[in-house]
Amino acid sequence: xxxxxxxxxxxxxENEPLFSDISFSVKEGDCTAVIGSNGAxxxxxxxxxxxxxxxxxxxxxxxxxxxxxxxxxxxxxxxxQSGLQDAINFPATAxxxxxxxxxxxxxxxxxxxxxxxxxxxxxxxxxxxADYADKTLGEMSGGxxxxxxxxxxxxxxxxxxxxxxxxSGVDSKNVAVIYEILTRLNEEQGxxxxxxxxxxxxxxxxxxxxxxxxxxxxxxEGVGHPDVLAHYHQHHFIRTESIKGRTADTDCCQNHEN
Amino acid sequence: xxxxxxxxxQRAFLVSILLALIIPCIGVIVVLKRLSMIGDSxxxxxxxxxxxxxxxxxxxxxxxxxxxxxxxxxIEFIRKRLPKYAEMSIAIIMSAGIGLAGVLSGFVxxxxxxxxxxxxxVAISDFELRLVVMVSLLVLISFVLLYKELFFISLxxxxxxxxxxxxxxxxxxxxxLTAVTVSVAARTVGALIVSSLMVIPTACxxxxxKSYKRTVIYSICFAVLFMISxxxxxxxxxxxxxxxxxxxxxxxLLLSFAVKGLPRIFKKHRSAKAR
Lengths: 258, 275
Prior knowledge:
The complex is a heterodimer. By secondary structure, chain A is an alpha/beta fold. Chain A has one domain: P-loop containing nucleotide triphosphate hydrolases (Rossmann fold). Chain A has helices at residues 42-49, 94-100, 103-106, 114-126, 142-154, 172-187, 200-203, 226-257; strands at 2-13, 16-27, 31-36, 57-62, 65-66, 76-79, 160-164, 192-196, 209-214, 217-222. In chain A, the strands form two sheets. Chain A has a six-stranded mixed sheet with strand order 6-7-8-3-9-10, with helices on both faces. A four-stranded antiparallel sheet of chain A has the order 2-1-4-5, with no helix packed on it. The N and C termini of chain A lie far apart (65 Å). Chain B has a single domain, classed as ABC transporter involved in vitamin B12 uptake, BtuC. Chain B is built from twelve helices and no strands. In chain B, helix 1 packs across helix 10 (194-208). Chain B is mainly α. The longest helix of chain B has 34 residues, at 241-274. Chain B has helices at 7-32, 38-56, 60-81, 86-105, 112-118, 126-145, 147-155, 157-162, 167-189, 194-208, 212-237, 241-274. Helices cover 83% and strands 0% of the residues of chain B. At the A-B interface, helix 2 and helix 3 of A face helix 7, helix 8 and helix 11 of B.
């Protein structure tokens, strides 16, 4: 069963095309990474999948249903690009934050019961943050905050996890912890994962598919497929060289002026 | 105690405690949504409603509530149109409110208008007392019922929407509650200082609280403390109650900063000595 179906998707910002005619599917149980340079459109693609943006052309379906009509959001868990880093000064404990995402189970005008609090604790435990349940985000490191964001997502027990750069700004030790948690969720609990990342080196050891967005096109192949990584690295090389060239030009100009 | 022998003081204490219960409930959300100046904006706009009420010979508090609701909906409307410059919406509405209040005040013939600037908590009428009781019940019940929704929206509106929280409806209800609270509080403690009562107790609470629940409880406790001590001090020293209440809050906040900062200073001093 396909949990995500993207068909002939095109999107542009103010008549500037970002990508066109992108098509791919994410099957149940997949663990997929989306890679690409900054500005390639990875986060925009995520927003289109979440139905927050309207495509110029094409369609996005979640669980076989057009995203515009999709109502079963409890089946989808999402961690945004900055995770909970924006809420660093928010005066709430990890437990309160995780509990908030049980909203659909608790219901409007109702209060969390013992079972909901136990679920929140279990989610924190599953990411190794049970000891931090009563700590605020300000008392945690970036990696720990990211693990709380994962616990927040897991507590609602979604089938599909959408992660926008889950390891950005996280130290290498915590990156490994987060990837191990995601692998466990994928392999043991059968969660389907689609994550955006810049971490092309380490992520290839954890995912079973990779998609690369560059120059408005998408290359899709299995992990370590030479086309995907070669394409990505070739673009990085060209970009880095062009930036180096620009810097060199600027330096030349400055030297000339001096 | 002599202070409680006067009926007007008994009313003042009752109204103060009720307002101290509801203003921080609104204040915590307003501060966490980074809209601290919204109270100021609405309070100034409420003056336009008061002036319009006095000119049209309708109850000025009703005029203030109408103006505040219109202003808060206007803020939400501009905030949605300019999401990257959300704070600009507050400045736009505040300028419009002050401008309108300034023009309309020229047509007000009674001296009653000035009492709305600094409030008149010791001159509460029967109607105003009933209004404060009703508004307090409305705000408290709504806040308790929407506790987790308001928490989630303040934490992250986008995630709240994805989790199924009816964000638009909750924001709309909260906007109305804010408008009603500000207009009622403006009549009693004064339009010029009502926003301080929203922000200062929350700022004090955030110095000590280690959870959202405690932030709400501490904010209410601080607000009750400021209100009661402010009334006592203003009564015995013959000062204006509204201003006294706010100044006590500011002093407490400065003391909180000092108390929080002291251990850090001692630690630095000790480590310097050890070196």
